[in-house]
């Protein structure tokens, strides 16, 4: 993967000198980020210091790219999603708590969700019982809109699955991959993948059925 560069611009009026340390603290007096700092230290500094986040980017960009590329099998898409992962991470850095998860685990979760979002955006429909595999040009506009809304709800449900089920279902429905390929990508047996798909799709159908029934029972 070629080196990627990124510039992180902080909102006007929110410079490091105006951060939580107060207006009296200048860039010269605050602790400077270094490449030997722990992830947790850099994450804390990243709330006010773009250089600190840049070190985290350099530390993990290749790992994120490899993980995303492994799932999407498209270099251009993987580069786009990798960039989006770090944009999302920067936006959410204030909410990161080292006590809850290591930085790589937190970043990996953002990347996994970004892959799902990417596949969901690229694929307009999904082959579930309640969703059409493709838009039928003979079907009226109203029904086509309903089908696309159902597809959108389906992908929202996919995003709510546990990580392993979400990955398996995304690769199966979003990429149309055979079980053997999914097993290879996830480094699991075909039997384990089938079990993940079965449980994931069962959960999806239940959640979609609940969503469809909700308007009828409301009020």
Helix content: 55-70%
Please give the radius of gyration in angstroms: 21 Å
N-to-C SSE string, H for helix and E for strand? HHHHHHHH
Number of helical stretches of at least 4 residues: 8
> Which outline best applies?
elongated
- The CATH architecture of the largest domain: Orthogonal Bundle
Poorly predicted runs of 5 or more residues: 2-29, 124-139
Strand element count: 0
Q: Whole-Å distance between the termini? A: 55 Å
Average pLDDT taken over every residue: 74
What summary fits the major beta sheet? Answer: none
Count of separate structural domains: 2
CATH topology of the largest domain: Rna Polymerase Sigma Factor, Chain: A
Structural class of the helices, strands and pairings? mainly alpha
Query: What's the CATH class label of the largest domain?
Result: Mainly Alpha
In short:
The chain is mainly α and 219 residues long. 63% of the residues lie in helices and 0% in strands.
Characterise this structure.
Helix 4 (103-122) packs antiparallel against helix 5 and helix 5 crosses helix 8. The protein is elongated. The protein has helices at residues 39-46, 50-72, 75-92, 103-122, 141-159, 163-175, 179-186, 190-217. The termini are far apart. The longest helix has 28 residues, at 190-217. The chain is an all-alpha fold. It has two domains: 31-122, Rna Polymerase Sigma Factor, Chain: A, CATH 1.10.1740; 125-211, Orthogonal Bundle (Arc Repressor Mutant, subunit A).
């Amino acid at each position: 993967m070629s080196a990627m560069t990124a510039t992180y611009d902080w909102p006007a009026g929110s410079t490091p000198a105006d951060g939580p340390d107060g207006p009296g603290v200048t860039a010269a007096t605050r602790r400077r980020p270094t490449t030997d700092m722990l992830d947790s230290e850099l994450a804390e500094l990243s709330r006010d210091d773009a250089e600190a986040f840049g070190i985290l980017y350099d530390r993990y960009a290749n790992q994120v790219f490899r993980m995303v590329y492994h799932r999407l099998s498209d270099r251009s898409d993987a580069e786009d999603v990798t960039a989006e992962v770090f944009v999302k991470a920067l936006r959410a850095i204030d909410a990161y708590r080292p006590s809850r998860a290591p930085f790589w685990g937190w970043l990996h979760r953002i990347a996994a969700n970004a892959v799902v979002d990417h596949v969901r955006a690229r694929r307009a429909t999904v082959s579930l019982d309640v969703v059409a595999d493709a838009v039928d040009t003979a079907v009226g506009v109203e029904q086509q809109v309903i089908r696309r809304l159902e597809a959108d709800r389906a992908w929202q449900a996919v995003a709510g699955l546990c990580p392993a089920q979400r990955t398996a279902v995304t690769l199966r429905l979003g990429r149309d991959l055979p079980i053997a390929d999914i097993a290879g990508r996830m480094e699991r047996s075909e039997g384990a993948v089938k079990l993940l798909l079965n449980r994931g799709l069962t959960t999806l159908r239940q959640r979609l059925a609940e969503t469809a029934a909700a308007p009828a029972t409301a009020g």
